[in-house]
Amino acid sequence: MKPPDNNQTELLSIKAEQRAAQFAALCGRTVALFAIMLLVTVLVPWPGPLYLYAVLLVFAVLGWGGWYLENAAWGKSWHQYAFVTADFALMAFVLLYPNPLLPLDYPPQFILRYGNFIFFFVLLAGLTYVYRPRLVLWGGISAAVCWAIGVLFLLNLPDTFRIPSNDLSLEITLTAFATPTYVDTSIRVQEVFVLLIVAGLLALAVKRSRTVALRQASLAREKSNLARYFPNKTAELLAGKNNPFSQPREHDCAILFADLVAFTAWSERHTPAQTIALLREVHGVLAEVIFRHDGTLDKFIGDGLMATFGTPEPTPEDGANALMAAVDMADAFELWKTTSSMPDANQLCLAIGGHFGAVVIGDIGSEERLEFAVLGDAVNVASRLESATRQVGCRCLVSKELMEAAQGQQSEEIASCQQRLERLAPITLRGRRGTTDVFALR
Question: Where in the chain are the domains?
C-alpha cells in the first residue's frame, strides 16, 4: 500500500480537527437546546411548550444524525449538506408558523413583527466550527431560500396588506404599520441579502482559518521530519527558517561513522523480516545516543550510519559531544547484544570511526529532489577510520584532531572517555597519503 503523501497527511489532520470541532459544536448545541427547553417551560403558557419540545427534539435528532452520518463508513459528503438544509428549513418553519397549541388571535403575517429572523445567524455561526467554507456558504443559501419561501407564502395570503410602490406617504405608511396583516417586502429583501453577505464573509473567514490550520499542520510535519535528523533544539531553529540549506556553508564539525561487522553473513542465515527488525533495533539504539549528545543523524547507510556534530550550526562542544557519543555508542551496542531477543546477536560487532575537520553543508540534488548533505575530506577520513577498525582490531577509532577538539571541554565524562582511548602508532588510511594519528577503544 502506498503511504499517504504530505498533502494527504495534512488533509487527514484537518479532517480530524473538523470532527473534533463538529463534536464540540454539537455538544454546545445540545446544551443550548436543553437551556431553551427550560426557558420555554417557564415563559410559554401551557400546553404551548409541548409543541416546542417536539421542535427541539427534531433539532437534536438532526444534529446527532448529521454527526452519525459524517462518521459512518457509508456516509456521503452530500449528507451533511442535506442535514444543513433540513436545519434551516425547520428553523424557517418554526419562525413563521404560529404555535398550534397556543390560542393566538393574530394573523400569520403578524409573526414577522417579532424579529425572529436573527436566529438564523445563530444557526449559521455554528457551521463555522467545521472548517468547511462551502458548507457555511451552503447554509447561508439554504437559510435565505427557506426564509424567502416562507415570506412568499405569507405575501400570497389573501388578506396580506402591502404598500403600493408608488404611494409612500406618511399616512399610508402609518396605516400599514397599524395593519396586523401588513408585510414590509423591503425589510424582507434586506434580511435575505444581509444573510447572504454574512454567509459569504463567514465562508471567507473559515477558508482563511482552514488555510492557517493547514499551514500549522505543514509546519508541525516539517518540524517532525527535522526531528528525525536533528536534536530537538536544532529542529526548532530550522523549522522557523525558509530554505536553511540553500546557501552552502563551510565550517569545522565532527563526523562519526558506524557500521555493523559480520552483518552480511548474519543476514544470510536469517529471514528478511528478522534482518529488518534487527536493523531497526540497532539504528534506534544508536540514534538515541546521537541525539542525546546533540548530534545530527545525517543518514542511514545500509547497516550503518553517519552522524555529525556541529551541523547545521557549530558549537564549542562539538568535538566533546562526538567523542562521548562514539564511546557511548560502543557501550550501548554491547549492552544491546546482551539484552536483545534477536537470534545470534552476539555474533555481530559495531565499528565506529570519528574525525574532526572542515566540511561543506548544504542542499544537493535537483529542484524536484533535494537532500541535506555534509561533504568534505573530513567525511572521507571518518569513513576510512571506521573501515580501519578491522585491521587495528578495535571497536572505535578516532583521530587526533577529534581528541584535540574535545580538549576545550573538560568534564568527568569527557575525561573518562579520553582515558579509555588508547593512543596507537600512526596508521595509513586507504586511499590517502601519509599517516594519521589515531586513538582506539578496545
Answer: 6-224, 243-441
